[in-house]
Structure formats: structure tokens, C-alpha cells
């Protein structure tokens, strides 16, 4: 395929470089890739903290310019820019909603970005971008039916079905943080708001694992769990990472703690498998680096559904979203002959 | 749009009539429509009960010939035949799997049907067909992001996403009968087989509602629930329909009984909404005829997810699948100019 890669260098207006930007609630990562998708420079820094949308976008482009300067490029040498946002984005209109972490709710991103860049621009949700990235260069490569599940502070989801991102009628598809896998019949009231921590993520995210671990440890007597507490220093500081490390090393208490969050996570993933019959489920976030977690998760998913799917860890780590943003540009703006 | 309908009469090889066949585990429905999709004859009878695939298909075509005879048509006057099966069907290859109710598992339907009909043939899963039917002439009309959920003896699902049926990597998408919405952390073992009654449907199907009602009634004392038992004659004969009728009439005991299965159903539908962000959820089966059921279901779904979707009852009843089979033929074999 070298010839087609060489073609695309000249094909993308002869410019060849693409910027992929992943804006998270806390960090913003910018990658510049050449026309083959190889990263030539990367830059990660705290996300701009300002109150208004205009200053926010100005800050993002200031960071971009500084990154470009490092490699002696100017914005107009870019074949395109892809940007992922932690919210519901309509790539066609540029409208963004449900973006609690940034001062952009209800804004039109195309209008905001227009003054800074008038070349090919691909905008989307950050988890959609991560799924695109994994599908391009990572654990989803070769699959046209793939679901990405990210497990970190929260839980996110994105789907590539029949080779295309499924975004949903209101561009909020993949909001699996709200999954209900633990309904009790006696629970007949209650309500959700779109801003609160989702029910599924309170049970099964990294945050949820930490909370469950601390609760469990406080209920023990004698020396049970002492070595887990020792890892962190004190029980208040025990996080998911401590429990996962010990569970992987064969520690029985840590494995006991992990059963509950893995069980809930497995129920949700089994539901995705039963509903969508994807070829592959790509699990991202810190937990996916634990082979103990991944193999236990696969075992439990099989207890919940007879439908088969490959369960694999993500491969691109924190760069999946920014790489997906690059891929979004290439997919959207390359002519068919260049692909 | 009259002119385009008139065009298609001549367009479909000048034949104009299409057969839609919905093969269920117990009943087989055959519809013949004219080129505008209007039904000219309908025939429903018990599904052929034989042990081998060849005799089964022969029986289906015998029924078809008898229906055609009623209106003075021969098979070769048909512009096409659509057939829905209760199993996982690959419409391209004609392979069928997971079809416990019929002697067809692992067979190639195209090969079996070839000797009887060599015109345009559209084969698919029965719930997919029902979703196509509702999307064409029923509750899904005008929507390109629609999920169909059928609640009867069991629970089935099908999805039209971005205007196309989503069938999944192994053509089993929509197997929501296996949904887990009631996981308990203490439940760490167990297994599923592809043949057993799904967990979700044991809680929330019509069958599940009946079982829950009888269990609930047996636990009561005094006169509680007596009027429900009176509807059926004796507690052993109480079915979902009795409880739904009384609940709709304002009976408190019946409404109490319905809370549990509606709660479980709502959790599963909320999960579909959170994951896929569909525009519309079409609920089919007997329960959907109860406005009490539908409004309670909508209320409970909103307690589980902040993502909005329209929840509407199916409109085509038992004819949705056969009409969808007709639509599948028209969609697949009409030229773009004829659509």
C-alpha cells in the first residue's frame, strides 16, 4: 500500500500534515501527523481554563500554533484539522451540546473556529474520535462492527457499525454511563439529570472501583485487606490502580473487591453484545491494561449472553482520540482515489 | 405521490404483486400486496409441522400457491417474495442459524427455495421484518433512527439506524431477550445457553408478566387480588392480558403487579436509548395496546436515562412482519427510479 500512501501526500493539496486535537476536561493533546498517519510531534497540556467560548478556542489555536512552530510549520501547511470535544457534536452543523466541562454548550464550533482556520475541519465527540483512532491504527483495525468502551474517571462508549460511526438522532449515542444493570423491583421512583454521574459509571468506572474498594476495606476486620491499604498508605487513598495491581498479582482480597465492579461492567457489555452483535468490543482506559481485569471481564460477559464478541484492550492509550481526529479528516476530505 | 406509485406498477417488471410471508413458530401469515403496498389478500394458518427442511419449504410454497389461487394469480405474476424467519438470517448468502422453532438450522434458504421460485427473493429475520414494516407503513414511518421492541411470549428487538437495518456481525443483532438489568453483586456464577429463555424476557415478556402475576396473587391474603383471579376463573389461568385490562381500568392490585415487569422493561429500553440515541422506540406485541402500559413505561424510562426518545405503540399488529417482507423486496429490487 506504499504507493497509495505516497499518492495521498500529493493528494491532500500537497500539504501532507494533519493536526489531531483531543480536548478533554483536564488535558488537551495535540498531534501532528504526516500523510501516512505517523506522528511527527505531540503536545499535551492542561486544557485552557476560561469562562467564554471565544477565549477558549483562541487558547486551543494558540497551543496549536506553538506545536506547529516546534516543527517549523504554519497553519496553512495543514491539510486539515480534526478536533474531539467532550460533548455531543453535530459534525455537519458544528453545534455542540452536553459539554459540562467546557464553556461551549449550545455554541456553533464552525463559527467559533472560522476566524482561525478555513481549511478542512472535522469535529466530533471525543469518544467517537477514540473509536475512530482504534479502528484506524489500534485494536479495532480491520473491524467494521466495533464498539469502544472507555473506563476511567467515568465510562464512555462509541460505535462503529457497518464501517461508520453511529452518532444517534441527537448526536449523543454511546452515553452508556447511564446504563441500568442493577435494577431492583422495589425501586419505583427517582430521577436522573443529564449532569449527574451516571448510574453505571458509579458502579463500574475507575472512580466506582476506588469507592467500592474503600467501602469494602472499611468493613473488614483483623488483617483482611491490610496489604491493599499498605499500597496506598491509608484507606482514604486507595484507588482502583492499587486494587488492580494486587488482583493481577493473585491477591485474594483484591480479587474479591474486583468481582463486584467487573460483574456490573460485564452485565453492561453483555447487553451491548446482545443488542448490537458487534464483532469486537475495544476496552480503553487504565483497567484495560490489566490482563486479570480483561480475562475476568470476558469470563463474566460469557455468563450473561450466548452471543459471541471479541473483547480486546485498546492499543493507543491517550493518543487514540487525537489519532482518530486525524483519521476523521483523512476519511472525510480525501477523495476516493486518495483513500 | 400517486404518479410514483403508478410508475412502480409498470416498473416492477409490469407484474405489480408482491408476496410477504411471516413464518412464526406457531403461525405463518402470507400477504399479497399490489404495487402500492395495499393488501389484496391475506392468509394465516398454523406453521407447517414437519421434521425436514425440504418438506417445510414445500409446505410454505403450497400455502402460497393456495393464497395466490384465491385471487387468480400464479407465482410467476409475482414481482418478488419476501420471507421472515424466526432465526438469524444472512440475506446475502441465505444461511439461517439459531432457529429453534423450525427444522432449518444451518441450512441455505436460497438453495432450498430455488426449486420453487427464481425471482427476486428477500429473506431476513422476523423481527427485522416487523421493524421494516412499521418503518414503512406504521409507527416508525418517517424515522431513520428507530428501534423496534416486541413483547409477547418472548422479547425481540430490531434496529433501523441511519435508515438501514443493523443486523450485526453474525446476523443476531437485537437479541435483547438476554439483557441483564437486574444483576446482583453476589451472583458470581451461572451460564447461559442460546436455547434457554432469556433473562430479560423471563422478567418482562407477556409470559413473564403472567408468571409474576400468579406468584404475586398466591402470596396475598384476604380478598386482595380476588377480582383479578375472577377475570381468569382461577389463579393458575391468570395471564398478562387479565392484569393489563384491570390495570388500565384503574385497579390498584393490577397496577401494583404491573410495576415490577414494567420497571424491568423500562430499564432495558432506557439502556437502548442511552446506547443508541434513537429517535423512536416502537413497542409491539399485546402490551403495546394498553395505554396504561405505554404511559407507565415512558414514565419509568425517563427515570433511568436523561436521553430522550419517542416511545410509541406499533401500528401494524401481526401484519408488520409480512408487510416488512414486502417492503424488503421493494427496497432491494426496485431500481432507484422506481422508489
TrEMBL record, chains A, B:
Gene3D superfamilies (alphabetical): 3.30.420.40
InterPro entries: ATPase_NBD, ROK
Alphabetical list of SUPFAM superfamilies matching this protein: Actin-like ATPase domain
Pfam (any one): ROK
Family: Belongs to the ROK (NagC/XylR) family.
Name of protein: ROK family protein
Amino acid at each position: 500500500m506504499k504507493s497509495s500512501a505516497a499518492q495521498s501526500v500529493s493528494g491532500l493539496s500537497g500539504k501532507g500534515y494533519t493536526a489531531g486535537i483531543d480536548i478533554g476536561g483536564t488535558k488537551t493533546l495535540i498531534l501532528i501527523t504526516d500523510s501516512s498517519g505517523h506522528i511527527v510531534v505531540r503536545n499535551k497540556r492542561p486544557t485552557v481554563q476560561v469562562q467564554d467560548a471565544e477565549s477558549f478556542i483562541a487558547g486551543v489555536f494558540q497551543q496549536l500554533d506553538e506545536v506547529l512552530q516546534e516543527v517549523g510549520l504554519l497553519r496553512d501547511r495543514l491539510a486539515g484539522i480534526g478536533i474531539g470535544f467532550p460533548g455531543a457534536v453535530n459534525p455537519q452543523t458544528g453545534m455542540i451540546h452536553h459539554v459540562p466541562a467546557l464553556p461551549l454548550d449550545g455554541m456553533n464550533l464552525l463559527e467559533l473556529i472560522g476566524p482561525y482556520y478555513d481549511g478542512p475541519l472535522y469535529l466530533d465527540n471525543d469518544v467517537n474520535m477514540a473509536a475512530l483512532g482504534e479502528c484506524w491504527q489500534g485494536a479495532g483495525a480491520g473491524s467494521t462492527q466495533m464498539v469502544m468502551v472507555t473506563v476511567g474517571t467515568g465510562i464512555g462508549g462509541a460505535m462503529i457499525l457497518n464501517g461508520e460511526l453511529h452518532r444517534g438522532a441527537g448526536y449523543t449515542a454511546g452515553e452508556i454511563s447511564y446504563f441500568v444493570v442493577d435494577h431492583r423491583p422495589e425501586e419505583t421512583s427517582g430521577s436522573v439529570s443529564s449532569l449527574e454521574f451516571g448510574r453505571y459509571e458509579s458502579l463500574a468506572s475507575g472512580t466506582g472501583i476506588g469507592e467500592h474498594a474503600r467501602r469494602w476495606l472499611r468493613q473488614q476486620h483483623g488483617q483482611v485487606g491490610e496489604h491493599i491499604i499498605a499500597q496506598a498508605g491509608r484507606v482514604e487513598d486507595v484507588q482502583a490502580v492499587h486494587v488492580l495491581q494486587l488482583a493481577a498479582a493473585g491477591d485474594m482480597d483484591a480479587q474479591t473487591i474486583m468481582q463486584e465492579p467487573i460483574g456490573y461492567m460485564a452485565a453492561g457489555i453483555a447487553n451491548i453484545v446482545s443488542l448490537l452483535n458487534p464483532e469486537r468490543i475495544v476496552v480503553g482506559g487504565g483497567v484495560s491494561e490489566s490482563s486479570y481485569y480483561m480475562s475476568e471481564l470476558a469470563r463474566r460477559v460469557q455468563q450473561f449472553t450466548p452471543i459471541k464478541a471479541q473483547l480486546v484492550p485498546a492499543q493507543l492509550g491517550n493518543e487514540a482520540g487525537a489519532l482518530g481526529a486525524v483519521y476523521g479528516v483523512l476519511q472525510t476530505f480525501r477523495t476516493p482515489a486518495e483513500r
